Amino acid sequence: MKTRYTYGGDEHVYVEVDDEMSLDAFFIGLSLSRLVREANIPGVTEICPANASFEVRFDPDVIAPDEMMARIKELEGEAQAQEKRLDTRIIEIPVFYEDPWTHETLMRFRERHQDPSGTDLDYAARINGYDSVAAFIEAHHSQPWFVSMVGFVSGLPFLYQLVEREKQLEVPKYLRPRTDTPKLTVGYGGCFSCIYSVRGAGGYQMFGITPMPIFDPEQKISYLKDFMVFFRPGDIVKWKPIDRAEYDAITKQVEEGTYAPKIAEVEFDLDAFNKDMTGFNAKLMEALNDA
To answer: How many helices (H) and strands (E) does the chain have?
Structure first.
């Protein structure tokens, strides 16, 4: 793992902890970006974290670009020595897999897909070695996921599967992006799952849809009144498969202001997770079941 520092014009420094995603890289990036923030370096105006990287925006009239980069580099050793531990929360996200809305959309864009003859789930199951879509869906929802970044569009979470690397699902994006994706689509691209917070263009494979809004700029939804964005980096997600009746019931609760996401406070310890992934995940899900 070798950190790469590059300039982004005259006002940005981009810090990439590693060229591939891992939880080790995420935690180092998180620690380093926090140390930069706590250092109160004159001229820093914004720090934007990503999956295993972050970008610092600064005023070059206050601090020169080379000095800015040097100040960040000075903190790298301390960041690598930080404990990879986080007080966070595990959240249950209901998912209506194989729903009619994403199905209608994906069928409109088959000419942009690797396999026009089937659905996104058919393709994902086949290339990951599963005998059926049902078996692939079970692999998608059976273990928890780690929110490594929020962004790209407002409120969209990138989720990294908490399993051994050789067991992680991998599915490429569409050959050419769609011009339409239903709001709250549960998508997949590379090693990341996501939830499309708003309707719009997209290239991730579409697996289903959640009835639980995750972004509300008007802050009218009951659980988004304090902040318009639901997710934050470090959150842990457990997908819960639901059917159409459950989808409609939750949608009604959201509209009435009575829906409350199922959440439990937990600690994520990367060393403990790496020592026993199955056992650690079981404890996370037990905490959620007890909530």
So the answer is: 9, 12
pLDDT at 1 > cutoff 80: no
Q: How far apart are CA 239 and CA 202, in angstroms?
A: 21
What gap in Å lies between CA 242 and CA 82, rounded to an integer?
40
Opening angle at CA 217, ends 212 and 220, nearest 5: 65
Closest CA to 238 of 103, 113, 141, 100: 141
Give, in order, the Cα–Cα distances in Å from 198 to each of 57, 87, 181, 219, 274.
27, 28, 8, 15, 34
Token pair recorded at residue 127: 């290339």
83/193 Cα distance (integer angstroms): 26
User: What structural domains and CATH numbers belong to the chain?
Assistant: 4-82 (3.30.1360.40), 87-290 (2.40.100.10)
Q: Can you read off the two tokens belonging to residue 45?
A: 């105006």
> Exposed/middle/buried for 266, CB within 10 Å: 0-12, 13-18, 19+?
buried
Model confidence pLDDT, tens digit, residues 131-178: 999 999 999 999 999 999 999 899 999 999 999 999 999 999 999 999
CA dist 222 → 24, 95, 212, 249, 252 (Å): 35, 20, 11, 16, 13
Characterize the bridge pairing of strands 157-161 and 12-16: unpaired
85-97 and 236-241: which strand pairing? Answer: parallel
Reported pTM: 0.94
C-alpha span between 113 and 119 (Å, rounded)? 9
Cα–Cα distance measured from residue 254 to residue 220, given in angstroms and rounded to the nearest whole number: 10
Cα 234 from Cα 270, distance rounded (Å): 11
Q: What Å distances lie between residue 246 and 13, 212, 242, CA to CA?
A: 46, 12, 6
pLDDT (tens digit per residue) in 191-237: 999 999 999 999 999 999 999 999 999 999 999 999 999 999 999 99
